Amino acid sequence: MKRRALRALTAMIAAAGTLLMTPVVAGQAHADTVICEKYGATTIAGGKYVVINNNWGDDTQQCINVTSTGFSITQASHNKPQNGAPGSYPAVYAGCHYANCSTGSQLPMRVSDSRFPTIQTSVSMTYPSSGVYDAAYDVWFDPTARTDGQNTGAELMVWLNHTGSVQPVGSRVGTASIAGGTWDVWFGNIGWNVVSYVRTSPTSSINFAVNSFYTDMVSRGYAQNSWYITSVQAGFEPWVGGAGLAVNTFSYSVGGTGGGDTTPPSAPSGLTASNVTSSGATLSWNASTDNVGVTGYDVSRNGTVIGTAVGTSYNVTGLSASTAYSFSVRARDAAGNTSSPSNTVSVTTPPGGGGGGSCRVAYVKNEWPGGFTANLTITNTGTAAVNGWTLAFAFPGDQRITSSWNATVSQSGTSVTARNAAHNGSIPPGGNATFGFQGTWNTSDASPASYTLNGSACTVG
C-alpha cells in the first residue's frame, strides 16, 4: 500500500513525499466506520487485520465503509490514464505496513521458516458494473525483517480481475497453473521486483497458500528464500471510478489445523511427445489439480528427474540420435507433496546428420553479480535458405530469462526455445540472424554447450 509510488509517477510522488507519510489510524471498527482521510486506517477482527483507505495516487476524495469483515468503496471519482499509475490501493491486510502492524500475524517471517508454507489466505470480493480497476492481492517481501518503510525485495501481486486496458508493471514472461487457475506471469523492476500473476479467467474469490506463488517466483529467479514476508494485503487499484468495489471477507492464518497440507496433487494425464528430432523433443500434458495449488512439475527421463516445468509443456534437449527414451511427469504442490507419475511416453530419436549440421551459433554474454545479458548470432552455413527458425538449447546453470529482443523466447526449467521475429525469419546461405535476452542467475551463469536449429544440431562458436 502506498505501494505504487514508483510506478509511472515515481519521481513526482517521491518528491512530494507520499511514500513517507504515516497512515492516520482510527480506533478498531465495531459498527461500520466510514474513512475518507487519504491514509486513514482502522482495525477489524480484534486487531487481527488493518483496513486502510490509501488514496496515495489521487487528490480527489475517496471514502470507504469498513465493516466487521472487510470494506467497500462508497465514494471515488478517479480518472487516471490507463497507461499510468492507479489512483489508490484501499485494502485489508495482515502484517506490517509502514510501522502499522496488525496483531498476531507472526510477520515479518523468513521464507525459510518452517511456518511459511503454512501461511494461507482467502478473500471474497464484489465488483461493480462500471469503472476501470484491478482486484488484487499485494504480498510484500524484504531482505530484512522490516516493519516500516518501503520493502525492497519483491512485490507479489495476484490479480483476480481487471477491466479496461490496464496491465501490471513490466512485461509478460510466461504462464503458470497455481491455486486452481491459469495465470499470465508478468515481471518488472521499479527498485524492487514486481511479479504479477493475472488470472486468465476472472474470479471474485480465492483461497491459496502464499508459498504456492512464491515458489514459482523463486524458480524464475525473481525472489530468494532468505527474504522475509512482511504483509499480505487484498484490495483494489482503481484508475476510473471505483465506487462499489468491495472486500466482503478476508482471512489470513499461519499453521492452519491438522499439521498442514498433506494431500498430493492429482497425477498429470495425457502426456505426449511431439517435434521429435535427433537431439530433442517437446513434451505436453494435461494440468493436475490440487486442494491448494499446483506449483510445478518434475520431468523424468528413464526414471531420473531432468528438469522442472511451471506450465504443462517441457522442451527436452541433449538427446542422442537413434536412441530410445521414456518420459514421465509428476506434479508438486506448495507443501512439497508430489503426485503419482503420469502415463509414460516413449520416443526413439531419428538418425542425426552428424558434423554439426548447417548452422553455427555464437553466444556472447555480459555478466554481473546476479544478472546478465546475452546476444546470440545464428549463421546459416548451408546452401539453402532457412525460412522460419526455432533455436533450442539448455542452460547448464540456474539462469532465468526476464526479457528478450528480436525473438520470442520461452523457458521451461533449464530448457530455452527461441523463435524468430517477423523481421528475421529468413536466413540466406552465409547470412545470419541475431537476438538476445536479459536474465538473472544465482550460483552459475555458464554458457550453453549445444544448440539445435529446427531440430538439427549446430556447431558452436
Could you explain the architecture of this structure?
This protein is mostly beta strands. It folds into 3 domains: 10-253, Jelly Rolls, CATH 2.60.120.180; 269-348, Immunoglobulin-like (Sandwich); 359-460, Sandwich (Immunoglobulin-like). It has 2 helices and 38 strands. It has helices spanning 10-16, 210-219; strands at residues 24-25, 33-35, 40-44, 49-52, 63-66, 71-75, 77-79, 91-97, 100-101, 109-110, 120-126, 132-142, 154-162, 171-178, 181-189, 193-199, 205-209, 228-242, 246-253, 269-274, 281-286, 294-301, 304-309, 313-316, 324-333, 345-348, 359-368, 371-380, 386-387, 390-394, 400-405, 407-412, 415-420, 426-427, 432-440, 451-453, 456-457, 459-460. The strands form 7 sheets. Strands 1, 3, 4, 7, 8, 9, 10, 12, 13, 14, 15, 16 and 18 form a 13-stranded mixed β-sheet that branches. The protein has a 6-stranded antiparallel β-sheet with strand order 2-5-6-19-11-17. The longest helix is centred in the middle third of the chain and has 10 residues, at 210-219. The model is unreliable at 1-22 (pLDDT under 50).
